[in-house]
Amino acid sequence: xxxxxxxxxxxxxxxxxxxxxxxxxxxxxxxxxxxxxxxxxxxxxxxxxxxxxxxxxxxxxxxxxxxxxxxxxxxxxxxxxxxxxxxxxxxxxxxxxxxxxxxxxxxxxxxxxxxxxxxxxxxxxxxxxxxxxxxxxxxxxxxxxxxxxxxxxxxxxxxxxxxxxxxxxxxxxxxxxxxxxxxxxxxxxxxxxxxxxxxxxxxxxxxxxxxxxxxxxxxxxxxxxxxxxxxxxxxxxxxxxxxxxxxxxxxxxxxxxxxxxxxxxxxxxxxxxxxxxxxxxxxxxxxxxxxxxxxxxxxxxxxxxxxxxxxxxxxxxxxxxxxxxxxxxxxxxxxxxxxxxxxxxxxxxxxxxxxxxxxxxxxxxxxxxxxxxxxxxxxxxxxxxxxxxxxxxxxxxxxxxxxxxxxxxxxxxxxxxxxxxxxxxxxxxxxxxxxxxxxxxxxxxxxxxxxxxxxxxxxxxxxxxxxxxxxxxxxxxxxxxxxxxxxxxxxxxxxxxxxxxxxxxxxxxxxxxxxxxxxxxxxxxxxxxxxxxxxxxxxxxxxxxxxxxxxxxxxxxxxxxxxxxxxxxxxxxxxxxxxxxxxxxxxxx
Length: 589
Known about the structure:
Structural class: alpha/beta
Strand order of the largest sheet: 2-1-3-4-6-5
Helix content: 25-40%
Distance between the termini: 70 Å
Radius of gyration: 26 Å
Number of strands: 18
Number of helices: 21
């Protein structure tokens, strides 16, 4: 039993660590500092918690986010007092917006050292505003048994709030008085012989997964927020499967396939969901919808009466604009109570899991469905055109990197896809296969904060993983490379270096020269080989698609590696402008 009776602070923090361990905590990310020393010691000494020291707080917070995203259980994120905790803020926002459980512990000065010009003391109450699921300040450490019981029960509540009803952030502010170091105190040592750990911890039940707390919501005639009974859905409908990182991706894909089969609806599958990588489960997958909808004639003929949207809305601007124009009846399937309709259409939220929706559907009449057939015919033609074009493209066009990854990654690989152009290229070009590749991303707030650190957290102690990123996003988080000495596993970074922000080339602001280059594209002109050498990270310049394919399968098992593809940002933007609208231009149905 790893309890430390050296002094009051260590009794308090070792009980804290043991309580969390029994609830299911396995990882604590620890940033350096003095005021947090009692917590750092407790986590470092606990035999069942992996404590990982990380210098940079922002990098630490996104690494914790990545570990928590992969494990679906809370990760402790720990820092000292003062501005250290403020560096966690972007990751706290992302965790809130994307439903990732984090337990943020900020050490603090005691009350008598606040608002009196004591060093490293700021107001840390409600530091993260409305973003945490729950936040509180714990009492000062105490040796009294009722206070230790208060600590235990507060931690149990905090763990539950990080998981339920929607996973997210819990912030605990912990004040400490000196001594912060493990200096013996007789009063603390004296209680060691009378403290009964077995009795004290006996009531703790592990809560290690969001799945242990989430259950399909079954409609209730009296308490449901769902129309009862559900209406029969028309035959002329579609399912939109948006961005999703489900804990059980194969089950998720099977449920959507069953829903598609039951209703006779095509499934427009976002690239940032697992559906395209479980293509054998669903013959009704549509992966080229963004390209189809660039044809006005097809957009008109494929218009649905009814749309069932599962999860967040896809990235595609074409799809959003089409839905806004067509104004179909929209049903959003989400059991967690969020408003997932940025289009403000004719929308009803069904507060159901997919499984519960399947149980609630009225009997459907199975008939030949011309609407489904039209979608499938166009999908086949556009997909063939895309794949042929990509196969014949020898130039280092950055969009081909996403397509090639869909073809060659080893089965089950976790792929972290960065914001800006990589997510869009995945939506445009990612081909359906049976690879079981797991797409991962930070699309809660759609930012580029901490993406390298997140990818390393996702890959830590997992199967060899890959990251697809642009140069600016990688440069924004190069301190993530400092995690190298504590990182267990392998991450290959496929770096699209177009010397600037390619996403802005697609926007009207790109015509506003000369301000555009300096203030929007913001080229940095970095030698990534030298940067990688600074951090002791392997680097290789990719000069052909054959070379990239050879480097991606098989993947190494250890370390961090950067595969740099240098592309022409303006030529790639011109390629998209000239080609994306042509794949479906001559198709008639």
